[in-house]
């Protein structure tokens, strides 16, 4: 049985679908703080889970005895800066409860997403390596950095098989992002199709590591399926994806929607967050340990996003 906590989020929605396709609907219990999103409700078991309520979480572990747990519930970078203590509390309490219950109920594997947000202004900005100076200056970033330390600690101390990926900004059409800094790269596609124009909250030259959701989900499942003894990283694996800035994304969209108009706001708090993050990531450990290979470059992602988004908006 696979338990997914945070099933209604940008990653959760896609992981529930992918894992139910592989293991069958009944094998995957989706859970989130709110009642199920329509698409998930009608496709398999669902629980209301509140990562701040230890008894509620404990009850779900006791009832379902999951063999794998994916903890995806978190407050992301931009929203985290609006409510820093809430973000720290939710991101850390949720992880520590899940790690404890995973040990208590002998869960075979745990997945927890980290982010390129664990890097900061003094980290190398290009081809950022797996190991380097990390001085994240967002609550989200340092909660993910602290979380990575806890994951490695539970692996070393209790032998818990916790696995993690430092995701770049994720772009997908099935579910929207919630409260991040890279969300512009999803909103732009919706606006390009609906209104033909988009006002970006990041400046034209702001390059960031990004990844198409299909690649991110495939990477997650590949990592989770890898033999434990092939994994040399128990904090969280760098994952690079594609590096582009808003102007480059707009130019790619214009190849499909020639009249698309891009504009830029003159200031937004998310610009400072983006400026503190790497422009590109070195993911040689993922390539070496579990054979990672990217499939979607900017052109392929843009074409796939537009073709699919058109069918649902
Ligand atoms: C955010 N989408 O923007 C997340 C992600 C690398 C960015 O962590 O906060």
TrEMBL record:
Domain NAD-dependent epimerase/dehydratase as annotated: residue spans: 2-240
Family: Belongs to the NAD(P)-dependent epimerase/dehydratase family.
Molecular function terms, GO-annotated: L-threonine 3-dehydrogenase activity
Biological processes annotated in GO: L-threonine catabolic process
Organism: Mucilaginibacter xinganensis
InterPro entries reported for this sequence: Epimerase_deHydtase, NAD(P)-bd_dom_sf, NAD(P)_epim/dehydratase
Domain of life: Bacteria
Record-given protein name: NAD-dependent epimerase
